[in-house]
Design goal:
The chain is an alpha+beta fold. It is built from nine helices and 20 strands. The strands form four sheets. It has a six-stranded mixed beta sheet, sandwiched between helices. The chain has a five-stranded antiparallel beta sheet with strand order 13-12-11-14-20, with no helix packed on it. Helix 3 runs parallel beside helix 5. The structure holds adenosine-5'-diphosphate.
C-alpha cells in the first residue's frame, strides 16, 4: 500500500498548453480514488504524471513521504491498466499474465503459482491456453487487470479500463474491480468520464474541469453537497434541475417570488445578484392542485413528455418555459400536456451564485 501526495502539480505540454493547474491531493493508503470530468479536462495527464509516463512541469509528487518526481515508473511501484487492453496478441492468456515476471527472471514454478492464483481471482483459469482473439472484451480486460495485479504493486492506476465494454459487462467488471481492490488493498487511482462508475466504485471522487479540480469528496458529499454549479450538473442522472433568477427585495424572482431565507444564511448579501435555484429530479413530491405543503417551494408546470423506465418515470416539464426533469412513481405519471404541481422541500433545494458559480452558504443538513 502507498500514501500519495500531490502538491501544486502542473502540466504544461511542450506546445505551451497548460493541461493541469495546481493539482493538490493527498491519497491515503489503500484508498480508491476516481478522477472524473469531461473529455479533455486533464484526467489522463494527471494519471500519466503519477505513473511517471509524463514529466511533472512544476510541483511535487510524493510516495510515502519520498519525492518521486524523478523516479521511473518501475521505481514508483506502479501498475497501470489502459483502455486498450494492450495484450500481446501472439501470446496466450497464461503467457500474457506471466510476461512481466518472465522478464524479471523469476523462477518458472513461482510464475506458475502466481499465474494460477491471479487467474483464480479473476475467473480466468479455464482460459489460460486461449489467445486474446478468442476472448470477449470483458475477458480481455480481466487479463489486462491480471497483468497489473500479478506484480503485487502498491499503486494501481486505471485509465478508462471499461470503456470498450458493453453496458452489461461494464456493470459486472465494476463490481469485480471493486472486489479485487477490497482483497488486494492497493492504493488505486481510476480515471473515467462516467460519473456512475465514479459514484459506485470510489472512496473519494476528484471532479475536474479544464485542468482544475472542482471538488474532492466522497460520493455522498459530491451528490448532496456539490460546491459549485459544474459539480451539481455533472454528478447525478438525470442531472440537477437549474432555474435562473435574481434576488430582489430579499426574494428570488423567478415567475413567483420565492422566499430564499430558509436556504441561504445571508440573504442580504445576495441582493441584486443573479442566482440559480436548483433541485434534483428525485427530490420532488407531486401535490394536488391548490395545495402547498409546509417547508417546500411549490411550482406549477406543464408536462412536455414522459418516459417510463420501469422503476421510475422521468417527467420532462416546464415551469413557465424553464425546463425541468422530475422523477415520479410510474403509478403517478401525469398525462402529457397536463398541468403538474410539484413541491421541492427546503432541505432539497440549492442556491448558486451565477457569477461565481459557487453554492450559497447554508446550514441545511441534507440527509
Ligand atoms: P482527459 O483524460 O480528461 O480526456 P487529457 O489529460 O488526455 O484529458 O488531456 C487534457 C488536455 O491536454 C486536452 O486538451 C488535450 O488535448 C491536451 N493534451 C493531451 N496531450 C497533449 C500533448 N501531448 N500535447 C499537447 N496537448 C495535449
Amino acid at each position: 500500500m502507498a500514501h500519495l501526495l500531490l502538491k501544486n502539480v502542473n502540466k504544461v505540454y511542450p506546445n505551451g498548453f497548460h493541461a493541469v493547474h495546481d493539482f493538490n491531493l493527498e491519497i491515503n493508503d489503500g484508498e480508491f480514488i476516481c478522477l472524473v470530468g469531461s473529455s479533455g479536462c486533464g484526467k489522463s495527464t494527471t494519471l500519466r504524471m503519477i505513473a511517471g509516463l509524463e514529466d511533472i512541469t512544476s510541483g511535487e509528487f510524493y510516495i510515502d513521504g519520498v519525492l518521486a518526481n524523478q523516479k521511473s515508473s518501475r521505481e514508483r511501484g506502479i501498475a497501470m491498466v489502459f483502455q486498450s487492453y494492450a495484450l500481446y496478441p501472439h501470446l496466450t492468456v497464461y503467457e500474457n499474465l506471466a510476461f512481466g515476471l518472465t522478464l524479471m527472471g523469476i523462477d518458472d514454478d513461482i510464475i506458475e503459482e502466481k499465474v494460477q492464483a491471479t487467474a483464480k481471482i479473476l475467473g480466468l483459469t479455464e482460459y489460460l491456453e486461449r489467445f486474446p482473439r478468442n476472448l470477449s472484451g470483458g475477458q480481455c480486460q480481466r487479463v489486462a487487470v491480471g497483468r497489473a495485479l500479478i506484480r503485487k504493486v502498491s499503486i494501481f492506476l486505471m485509465d478508462e479500463p471499461l470503456s470498450n465494454l458493453d453496458a452489461k459487462q461494464r456493470v459486472t467488471m465494476r463490481s469485480e474491480i471493486k472486489q479485487i481492490h477490497r482483497s488486494v488493498g492497493a492504493t488505486t487511482i481510476y480515471v473515467t468520464h462516467d460519473q456512475t462508475e465514479a459514484m459506485t466504485m470510489s472512496d473519494r471522487i476528484v471532479v475536474m474541469k479544464l485542468g482544475v479540480i472542482q471538488q474532492v469528496g466522497t460520493p455522498f458529499e459530491l451528490y448532496f453537497y456539490p460546491r459549485n454549479l459544474f459539480v451539481a450538473g455533472f454528478i447525478g442522472e438525470p442531472p440537477m434541475n437549474f432555474m435562473y433568477g435574481s434576488v430582489k427585495g430579499g426574494k428570488l424572482v423567478l415567475k413567483d417570488d420565492l422566499d430564499i431565507s430558509p436556504i441561504a444564511n445571508d440573504v442580504a448579501a445576495l441582493e441584486g445578484r443573479e442566482v440559480v435555484f436548483a433541485f434534483r429530479p428525485e427530490s420532488i413530491m407531486l401535490v394536488p392542485e391548490g395545495q402547498t405543503p409546509e417547508g417546500c417551494y411549490v411550482f406549477d408546470s406543464e408536462v412536455d413528455l414522459t418516459e417510463l423506465l420501469g422503476d421510475v418515470t422521468n417527467v420532462y416539464a416546464n415551469v413557465d418555459g424553464a425546463n425541468v426533469i422530475l422523477k415520479v412513481n410510474p403509478h403517478d405519471t401525469p398525462a402529457m400536456g397536463a398541468g403538474c404541481r410539484f413541491a421541492v422541500p427546503y432541505k432539497s433545494a440549492y442556491l448558486y451564485d451565477r457569477e461565481t458559480e459557487l453554492a450559497v452558504e447554508t446550514d441545511i443538513v441534507r440527509h
